[in-house]
Design goal:
Helix content: over 70%
Structural class: alpha+beta
Strand content: 5-15%
Number of strands: 4
Radius of gyration: 32 Å
Number of helices: 11
Length: about 300
């Protein structure tokens, strides 16, 4: 008996979906717009995260060592830093490499090059470039360096000349604020547009159900239960969501193909077309679940609230 009712509900919803062709088309189109908005939120979040990651990768600090710092002590310090959970990577630049890079930067400045050639020794010390996993962790790394320098030097004169953290601190703090604000703004926008998508879909499905008000009245007169009356409309909502999800994932292909080179050229570090291809099944699942949930809930609430079942 139960499965018989379920089959009837599904069949009624399926028949109503195709019978009310124009209404179904309008509902599917509106839900497609809603799912496109959700897709835009997903793409925006991917662009934001990739852009922020690019900026993070360009933020670093340099540790400048005194010219007579023993290389083995510098390498020991590098190994200790690499073992720290906050450190993403370190790059050692020897004094000779630092001098060569300096000469390359001042290749057209003959006075500077002539002054260097008159020196008996290399005036530049080695450099250790450090990248943290998160910009907020640089302060802790600097504190670690300030306490670790003496132990590395084994009680002798400290080998660290200076750390350029203070020079970069303003940019690092600004980046931390931008990251925090961007994440908050992204969450707020996602919730806002999701609510708009649900509201638009809800009102469209409410109109579709309003057209069937006479049919609902007859069903109530013959003693049909509330669940049995709601069932076909919920099935219709699920079909709206399924159709909209499939249409949306198809429309995203040309949109992503067009936006791919643009996003790449903007220096965001992500190509949206590659992102679409790499995350196709994940996007499809998100759209299917979103469409089915929005369609089913909107249909259920529209019947309950506006038709007074």
């Amino acid at each position: 008996m139960f499965w018989t009712k379920v089959k009837r509900v599904i069949k009624s919803g399926w028949v109503a979906f195709w019978r009310n062709g124009y209404v179904s088309l309008a509902s599917v189109l509106v839900m497609t717009v809603a799912l496109l908005v959700i897709s835009a939120i997903i793409y925006s979040d991917a662009l934001l995260n990739s852009t922020l990651q690019n900026i993070k990768n360009k933020v670093d600090i340099n540790v400048y060592f005194v010219t007579d710092a023993p290389e083995d002590q510098i390498l020991t310090l590098q190994q200790q830093l690499n073992a720290q959970p906050e450190v993403a990577s370190t790059t050692y630049i020897s004094s000779d490499q630092a001098l060569a890079a300096f000469k390359d930067r001042h290749a057209t400045d003959q006075y500077t090059l002539q002054a260097l050639s008159e020196l008996d020794s290399n005036p530049l010390g080695a450099i250790l470039n450090i990248q943290a996993k998160d910009p907020s962790q640089y302060e802790g790394i600097v504190q670690y360096l300030n306490t670790e320098d003496t132990s590395v030097a084994s009680g002798t004169t400290p080998i660290i000349d200076k750390i350029n953290y203070d020079q970069n601190k303003t940019a690092i703090d600004a980046l931390n604020r931008i990251i925090a604000a961007s994440r908050t703004l992204g969450l707020v926008l996602a919730i806002f547009f999701a609510l708009i998508a649900i509201l638009i879909t809800f009102n469209t499905i409410r109109l579709a159900i309003y057209i069937s008000r006479d049919e609902i009245s007859v069903m109530r007169l013959v003693g049909a239960s509330n669940k049995y009356i709601r069932g076909p409309f919920v099935v219709e909502g699920l079909l709206y969501g399924l159709s909209s999800a499939l249409i949306t994932i198809i429309l995203l292909y040309p949109a992503s193909y067009w936006l791919g080179p643009i996003s790449d050229n903007l220096g965001t570090g992500i190509n949206l077309f590659d992102y679409y291809l790499q995350n196709f099944f994940q996007l499809l699942v998100i759209l299917l679940v979103s469409g089915l949930v929005i369609g089913a809930i909107s249909s259920y609430l529209a019947v309950k609230k506006y038709l007074k079942i």
